[in-house]
Structure formats: C-alpha cells, structure tokens
Amino acid sequence: MPTPNSNASPALQAALRTDAWFGSCAPALQDALLALGRAGRLAGGERLFTRGASAEGLCCVTAGALRVGALQPDGSETLLGYVEPYQWFGEISLLDGLPRTHDAVADGDTTVWQVPQAELRAWLDANPAHWQDVARLACAKLRIAFTMLEDIAHLPLEQRLAKRLWWVAHGNGTRPDAPRRQLRLPQEQLALMLGVSRQSANKALRALEDKGVLKLRYGAIELVDVATLARAAGLD
C-alpha cells in the first residue's frame, strides 16, 4: 500500500523496502522517512557533504553511487566505502549531532533520498522507541568495521579482497539474499578501500580470476560464483 502523504513513488517505496534495515523498521518509522524525505540529485564528482560539515540528516542512495572517504593533506584519497542503492547512511551525526565524519562524493550521476535532520529528530523525540532503530543501523556498521580492522591484522590480501568484494556485493549486509553480480568498482578505488597499491590489488584480483571467482571488466568486476567467493573470503 502506498504510504499516505509520502514524497516517494510507490515504486521507490517498494525498492527502499528491499534494504534489510529499512525493511525491518516499524511501519511508522518507514512512513516518517518517506514522508519527511526528498530526492536530491548530484552530478558525478559533486559532493553530498564534506568532512566537518554540519549534520543534515539521514540519507539513502536510490540511484548511482557515492564514494565515502576523505582527502588527505598530501592530496591522496582515503576511500572507506562505496554506497549503492538502497543503503542508508548519516546515522552517526543524527545520533550525536556532531559534524560529518567523512566526505561523500557522487560516482557518476546519483540520486539520494534525504531526510532533514531537524524534522527527523523532532519526530524521533516524539516517538522515542524508534531511536533504537537508528542505533541498530549504526551498530550493524560498527560490527563490520571491527571485522575489517581485525582482517587487516590477520588475513592475507587475497582473502581480505575476497571478503571486501563479498561485503560490497551484499551491500554491507543490506542485501543478504540478493547479492549484486556486477560491481561498478574500479581497481583504483578498491585498492584505496584496502589501503594497498593498485598493483597489489590487481595481483590479488587476477588470482581470484584464475580461480573462477570473478571476471575483470572495464571499470567493473563481475562475480561469477558468489559461493566460491564466500569460500575464498573464509565466510562459508
């Protein structure tokens, strides 16, 4: 059923509900996020927000993708994540009211569903039980972050790469049953996410390709066998 007074089309509402977090939220919170939100469009390279900017609410990519990271003083880029449809983000600043922790830059033409901070906080304060849902979103990402930190210390690069590809394919846990087979993830960005050189990332990718796990495409990675990818990542 379409949400009363929603700013989202029925098709977009249905698509948003495919996200594990949004789909598990109570209908009242779903309705509020749909009614309070608006779609914003970004051109490739345009910033949604920058590190240190004031919090502007909860967001969800509905088309395209965002690179989340930071520009270092020496001009190099740190890439922490790649946000695709229909992943929600911005919950840290929503919870603590502090500035944004990283930059979010459009990777090609991108559309983002934006729920304003003041209106959403007012709704949550009036319906405080739903703050727990926002906390669940933050905790899910924190668990993944802890796992990745442990991986850096203990796993060889090829396994770490396979695990990161598995997470990207599953939308960092938001698509547990519907992994993406085509990942629009250039090797340069993947290397940045892993904190290694492009040459090292390419070598590990070629090794996985030789094992029949994936195929390298121009600017993208095709996952041939997700089950084998999970085994290579040590997740089976």
UniProtKB/TrEMBL annotation:
Residues 155-227 form the HTH crp-type domain. Keywords: DNA-binding, Transcription, Transcription regulation. CDD domains: CAP_ED. Gene3D superfamilies: Jelly Rolls, Winged helix-like DNA-binding domain superfamily/Winged helix DNA-binding domain. The keyword Transcription applies. Residues 45-124 form the Cyclic nucleotide-binding domain. It holds the Pfam family HTH_Crp_2. It comes from the Bacteria. PROSITE patterns: CNMP_BINDING_3, HTH_CRP_2. This is Crp/Fnr family transcriptional regulator. The lineage of its organism: Bacteria, Pseudomonadati, Pseudomonadota, Betaproteobacteria, Burkholderiales.
